Amino acid sequence: MKKVNSIAILGLLFIAFFLVSCEKESYNRYQPQIDQMKAVADSIIANTHVSGIVALVVDHNRG
To answer: What angle do CA 17, 23, 24 make, to 5 degrees?
Structure first.
């Protein structure tokens, strides 16, 4: 029984480590600007008769 418990604990630790290591990169230096733009767009949509906003974003690094 003790061996089964230790194998189960090791398995859970392995799964947890795998899930954490596959998580997206948490740091994005542009995230504050993205959040501000989302807030402005949501405010415009909520306070006017605009049904939606379309934006074209060009990543010059990718071409």
So the answer is: 155
Cα three-residue angle 34-54-33, rounded to 5 degrees: 10
Residue 13: alpha-carbon gap to chain centroid: 23
Domains of the chain, by residue range, sit at: 2-47
- Read off the pLDDT of residues 15-60 as tens digits, 9 standing for 90 and up: 877 776 665 666 678 888 888 888 888 887 788 876 676 766 676 7
pLDDT band at 3 (very low <50, low <70, confident <90, very high): confident
User: How deeply is 41 buried, as exposed, middle or buried, from its count of CB atoms within 10 A (0-12, 13-18, 19+)?
Assistant: middle
